[in-house]
Amino acid sequence: MMIRVGVLGLQGAVREHIRSIEACGAEAIVIKRAEQLEEIDGLIMPGGESTTMRRLIDRYDFMEPLREFAGKSKPIFGTCAGLILLAERIVGYDQPHLGVMDITVERNSFGRQKESFEADLDIAHVGENYNAVFIRAPHIVEAGENVEVLAKYNERIVLARQGSYLGCSFHPELTDDHRITEYFIKMVKEHKGLA
Ligand code: GLN
Question: Which string of DSSP letters, residue by residue, matches the chain?
Answer without folding.
Answer: ---EEEEE-SSSSHHHHHHHHHHTT-EEEEE-SGGGGGG-SEEEE-SS-HHHHHHHHHHTT-HHHHHHHHHTT--EEEETHHHHHHEEEETT-SS-SS--EEEEEETTTT-GGGSEEEEEEEETTTEEEEEEEEES--EEEEE-TTPEEEEEETTEEEEEEETTEEEESS-TTSSS--HHHHHHHHHHHHHTT--
